[in-house]
Amino acid sequence: MGFCSLNIPPPLPVLPVPTASQLKWQQREMIMFIHFGINTFTNSERGTGKENPELFNPNGLDANQWAKVANEAGFSLVILTAKHHDGFCLWPSAYTNQSVKSSLWKDGKGDVVKDLSEAVRAQGLDLGVYLSPWDRFEPFYGNEVQYNEFYLGQLQELLTGYGPISEVWIDRFKGDNTTMIYHFSNWFAIAKELQIYANVFSDAGPDIRWVGNENGTAGLTSWSTINGSSYNFGQGIKGYLNTGDPSGMDWKPPECDVSIRKGWFWHSDQEPKSLSQLLDIYYTSVGRNCVLLLNVPPNTTGLISGEDVERLIEFNKATKTIFSVDLAAAAFVTASSVRGIAFNPSNVLNNDLWAYWAPRDVGCSEKPHWIELNVKEAVEFNVVRIQETIVLGQRVMEYGIYVSGVDENKMMLVSNGTTIGYKRLHRLEKPVKAIRVLLVILKYKGSVPIISSFGLHFDPFYNGFSQ
Ligand code: FUL
pTM value? Predict the structure, then answer.
């Protein structure tokens, strides 16, 4: 009786790990936010709740245009402000008259949420909703039980009437002179009950956390984990949310919400950010283990303005130019050690999160672990991309990137970092020409670090000075 050699199984995970929905969310990398509502027609960023609903009249509204633009610009999920702080609802809620049904648009018979839900589906995209807890119109606001019931009623309408919802976006804002207490736990529980695959965003989750600012910048150290239970708003929490917590017990990865323009809503005197500003944001969000939630506000006609469309297409083209070519694709890859044949170093050249390099676990003696790309003929690059296999938890805490040129034996440090996470992009000050590129992992959680991808790119849009 012959016997064949058996596979070595994967290493144990380092808990916590993402849920399937969180993993899907992370791999989206970019989500489109749409701020649209009564503010669009009053030229305001924060309505008072005293607005006449008849002012809402986007006579050229075409949700298909929004969805097409989202698709062409590389977004797979679109999140709409179903209700902002002013209380005006973009769907005909049965709990208030401050909505599209009291507007002139489509004689009060329109429903923006419905239009968008159909439009995104036609494009093969997903839908998310933002339902502002702060409601400056609703007379019950301030009455704890009645308002929480009202909010839940509205949440239920949105989560039962429009098909699958992939993200529920809830902030914590409230008026200055109010003792209003939001029943977040009730809202989160009902949201999950109605939409089991949805990720719920709020400052500290339950599924996705805020990154702590609205300029698209995650921490240089960026953990997907925090301790949700020790969350206490107002105690330096923004810094905590920005970097996360290496000893966090909860997987609550950060999302970077930022607008393509200065404001969240459309204003005739504002223009979209430049391509280089958007690329900077891309590197400081997607490139730091975050998802970028980029807001693109439709105008008073109800369309995304031409200049925003152009900028988005330009942005998408630019990221494709940079990242569709991996200069290390044909590299010979070596490593300090290999756990077994299934965990070969060359696995870092494909994009499968489950195909990765893992070193042997032999206690402390083999630390640090390293992995090296050898490209045979020198390549010129100014971006290094590293990705961890987050399906088995986030581990890396400290590392360095070294290169060596054609006839050199010496390795030169070109960048270093703390966390990697799903994706870490290093922009180098100047393009580097190298044959060998070495990643040395100095500190990590768990028995071994695990790398799923290691690539080299050239960014022709970067001159080294934009940040
Ligand atoms: C915040 C709001 O106060 C802003 O108006 C905007 O909607 C931003 C995305 O969230 O909480």
Answer: 0.97
